[in-house]
Structures are given as C-alpha cells and as structure tokens.
Amino acid sequence: MQNLRWVLNILLVSSLVHTSSQAICTSQDRAALLAFKSSITKDTTGVLSSWVGKDCCNGEWEGVQCNPSTGKVTNLVLRNSLNEPTLYMKGTLSPSLGNLGSLQVLFISGTKFITGSIPNSFSKLTSLTQLVLDDNSLQGNVPSCLGHLPFLEILSLAGNRFSGVVPASLGSLRSLSVMMLARNSLSGPIPVTFKNLVKLQTLDLSFNMLSGPIPDFIGQFRNLTTLDLSSNRFSGGLPVSVYNLGKLQDMSLERNDLTGPLSDRISNLKSLSSLDLSSNKFNGHIPASITRLQNLWSLNLSRNHFSDPLPVVGIRGFPSLLSVDLSYNNLNLGAVPSWIKEKRLTEINLAGCKLRGAFPKLTRPHDVTSLDLSDNFLTGDVSAFLANMTSLQRVKLSKNQLRFDLSKLKLPEGVSSVDLSSNLVTGSLSSLLNDKTSRFLEEIHLTNNQISGRIPDFSESLNLKVLNIGSNKISGQIPSSISNLVELVRLDISRNHVSGVIPQSLGQLMQLNWLDLSINALTGRIPDSLLNIKAMKHVSFRANRFCGLIPQGRPLNIFPAAAYLHNLCLCGKPLPPCRKTTK
C-alpha cells in the first residue's frame, strides 16, 4: 500500500496544469474515451457521467488530463477505494484506449468489476510511463505486448484474476522501477529475462502460485527497497546474492517452501527494517550477525525449523527492534530470553517455544501492544502481569497451564482480543462481561477451561464480535439480552450445561456466521427468528433436547443432518419429515 501511495504522489506531481489557452482535445482522443465509456455497462462512481461535451480537455471530464498545447490526452486516472463496496464499474477495457497515442499515465484502479483481458492494442501506448490496473477483475494471461512499452516505469496489475506464466517479455522493460503483480493466480518461475530489470526498486509478486527457486540475479537489483514474494510456492535456499541488496528495507518471503540456513552475511542488509521469513522450512541456527541490523524493527521467523541456541544479543544488538516472532520452531527456550524481556518491544510472539514456569516479568510491560505466549507450559496466575500492560491490545495465552479466577483478571482498557482457551481458568463470566467491560473488547476466547456460573446479561455498550466459551461448566439460560451483541460474528457455547430455550432475540444478530450450541441441555423448538440471519455459514444444535419442526428456509434447512442429530424429536429437512401429529 505504501508503494501505491507513492504512485499517487507521482501522479499528483506529474499532473499537467490547465491554462486558459489550452487546446481543445483531438477528435481521435475524444472518440477513444467515449468508446471506453461505452464499454462500461454500469458506473456507480458517477465519474463517467462527467464525460459530456466536445472538449475532453476542458477540465470537466473527470480523471482526464491533457497537454495544453496539443490537446492530446496524457493522463487517464480513474481510481476508487476498495473500502467503498457500493462504488464500482462494470464492463471491459475497450481496445480504443490503445488509440491514446500520447498517454503517459493510465491508472484504472479499484473499479472491482471491470473484467476481460488487457487489449493487445495497449502495445501502441509507447509513451506510457505508468500503467496501474490493480484491484479490478481482469483475467486471462498477462499480455506479452506490455513488454513493448519502452518508457514504462511503473507496472501494477495486482488484485486481479490473471493466470498463466509471467511473460518473459516484461524483462524488456529496462526503465521499470516498480513491478506489482500480487494477488493473482500466476504460475511458473520468475522469468530469467527479469535479470535486465536492474532499475527495480519495488518487486511484489506475492499471493500467486509462482514456483521454482528465487533466482540468483535478484542480487543485481542494487536499488531494490521492497521485495515481496510471499504466499507462493518458491523452493530451495535463499540465494547468497540477496545479501548484496544494501538498500533493501522490506523483505517478505513468508508462506513458501524455502529451505536451508540463513547466512552470516545477512548483516550486509544494512537498510533492512522489516524481515518476514515465516511459514517456510528454514533450518539451522539464527545467525548472530542478524543482531547487528541497526534499522530492523520487525523480525518474523515463525513456523520454520530454526533450532537452539538463540544468538546472544548484547546491549547494542537489535537497537531498533519493536516486533519479534519466533513461534513454532525447534526452540526449547525454557524461559523468555533476557533481551526480549528487557527491550522496548511492542509485539512479542513466542508461541510453541517450550516456555516453562511462571509468567515472565517484562522490564517494559507498558510498551507491549500484542503478546502471544500460547502453546507453552506456563503456570500460575497472570492477572497481575496483564494489569501492568497498559498499552495491551491483543493477548493470546491459550494452551498453557495457567490457573486463576476470572474475578482477579483486570484487562487494560484498550484490549480488543483475549485468548485464554485451554488452561485451568475458573470463576464466572460476569467478572469479565459486565457494565464496566471496555467497548474496545471484540474477541473473547475461553474455550476448554473450568469456568462456571451463568451467562451474564449483555449491555448495549458491548462491541463483541467473537464469544467462544465452549467446553466449560457454564449453566443457566441464554439471556434474551444476547440481542445487544449486534456486532457478533461467532458464538460458541458448546459442551456446557446451558438449559432453557433459545431466545427469539438471537435472530436479531444479523452478522452472525458461526453458531455452535451443541452438547448442552437446551429444550423447546429452534426459533423461526434464526431464519433472519442470512450470513450464517455454520450451525450446530446437536445433542440437546430440542423438539419440533426445524425452521424450513435458508440457511437452516441446507445445513447437514449432523447439525441436528441426537435431540428429542427434531424433524423436517434436512432430517426426515415430521409426523402429522408434530407441529
């Protein structure tokens, strides 16, 4: 996203200023624009409605800029935010756009529903310096003809539906500084012709299906500041040449099949500020030289095969580090390393690192915003430690052996997500959910503990989106005030001792897509009001004491029969029909 903002800034700087003596646009360019307008069957942005009149260069055609001397269109900039789902364009890219012979900037971004392929006529846009067609629904192969644009400096086709291999012809774009092909379905290797792209500053090929090794020639891109090859199928080791990229600031290689150790030469990446190698198969020791990276603030080496011992970190080691994630490697730490406890870190992630004993005491607890120590062997009471983490927003301590009463837990005001599932926590939910509960709290995960008591009433001030309290000892009824949780997306109260009927008010939770009430003592009928929840993707009413007709309508009657089994006398689709005496 930072790269796209940079592109926008370039566009603003390079925009031509309209003057009172500006020439009227040429008939050829006007015809090309109107042909594109005709190829758009629906435009909820309203932009194209401004394209009226004979002069497309008078400043009233939104998104169109011209050379004031010639009346030739030089910039066509149509962009829309992905955060505004009601604003979009439907249609195709008209081949007529290839007739805009003086076009330098073509920016059609975020229209969401422009489909079809990139016309081959785009090869005629030989003055083009910026081609940005991201976040549409374009499909087919990336056309080879784009390699015939000699002055192209920025190429972004991210967020479309392109498939096939990356064309080798793109290696002819020797002026290219930004290439973004992320979030498509491209496959095959990185073309060897890319070795010619020595001016590249940003290369983003993330979220595709690209495979093969990371080519050695990437080390020749000495101006590279951003390298994102994440979420692909790249394999093999990290080429030694990568350590020559002295200007590299962000390297994201996560979610691939990369193997082998990291070289001590990693300290040569002197500009590196963010390094993410997570979810690969890297092995060996984490090199001590990595601690000499002066600008590194984010380090994610999680879900690999790195082994003990960790490098010794001196007083001057990792001077800029704010976020560290070493989760799920072959590390047997025993205790949180002293340098992690003492540094001014905002994010600490050490899940599955075989930590043991009492909760670690951090030197600077007030700085921590995100903490994940899940899947370890921590014991005792954490409530006092969490209370001191005044900046905490997310905490995950699941799958430990923590033992304390919820009445002792005083979460900091800004916590949005707390996960204490699979521990030995006792007490009542009313200690955590009451009139004093922070409006920032969105997710509560307490599954598989020893929590008892009743489900408390829910106040209107709550903004909960996730409430997972399954596998406890909770009793009583589901309160009708459940309807106050209007933002709730997921509700799991399975494997408890909850009784009574499902309140009709549950059907007011329009955002709910996951509902699990299984293995309780609920009775009565499944209320018809649940048919109002159109977002529902998963339900389970299994193993209760329900009786009567399952509400006959989507989505309830399309879930599998397993969702309704082991009740007293439920009937109707997807179960067998009700007998005539059952209503």
UniProtKB/TrEMBL annotation:
Keywords: Glycoprotein, Leucine-rich repeat, Membrane, Receptor, Repeat, Signal, Transmembrane, Transmembrane helix. Gene3D superfamilies: Ribonuclease Inhibitor. It is found in: Cell membrane; Membrane. SMART domains: LRR_TYP. Residues 27-67 form the Leucine-rich repeat-containing N-terminal plant-type domain. The keyword Chloroplast does not apply. The keyword NAD does not apply. Residues 1-22 form the signal peptide. It is a single-pass membrane protein; Single-pass type I membrane protein. Its main location: membrane. This is Leucine-rich repeat-containing N-terminal plant-type domain-containing protein. The lineage of its organism: Eukaryota, Viridiplantae, Streptophyta, Embryophyta, Tracheophyta.
